[in-house]
Amino acid sequence: IIAEGAPRPTELAAEELQTYVEKMTGARLPIGPKPSDPAANRIYVGRSRFTDELGIGVDELKHGAFHVKSGENWLALVGKDKTFVPVEPAPRSHGDFPRVMAEWDKITGEQFGYPYRQLYKEYHRDLGIWEKDERGSFNAVVHFLRTQGVRWFVPHEIGKVVPEKASIALPK
Q: For tag attachment on the chain, is the N or C end more exposed, with fewer CB atoms within 10 Å?
């Protein structure tokens, strides 16, 4: 369960959890803004009205920190999440510098170097995230998956260890 309109890092965290739970158990968890079955176990990823009601805050969290908390039939994997928004003009690629420099010179009234020349390298197009995004909930999901035995040794399927399980017990 993620908040409606959640930041992209929260969505990515929920997608990673969904992917690895399915790899471990064969069960595909639905992702949505509210429980699909009121009697089912719930996993909250990121801050939402549900985590607010449970009293799980994120304001005190810094530097990618997170909470992993659970109750009778729920698990919360919550951190501070925020999508980075670059200040315009921002380069979209190396070839975009003539446009950016022209806009920058117009804004500053001078001709000197652009301070964010390499910014485009910090965006991952496939994942839709920036290096500067706050991803506390993603860190919580990765921590939880590690407690289940998942490991990433190299960035390829051959470097991933995913144990097979009949079920995953919610931690206490």
A: C
Question: In the block, which residue shows the tokens 């109750």?
Answer: 71
* Three-class DSSP category at 87: coil
Q: Are 85 and 132 in contact (CB under 8 A)?
A: no
pLDDT tens per residue across span 46-90: 999 999 999 999 999 999 999 999 998 899 999 999 999 888 888
Q: What is the DSSP letter of 12?
A: H
Distance CA 21, CA 15 (A): 10
H helices within 26-55, ranges in order? 49-53
Count the neighbouring beta carbons within 10 Å of the beta carbon of residue 61: 18
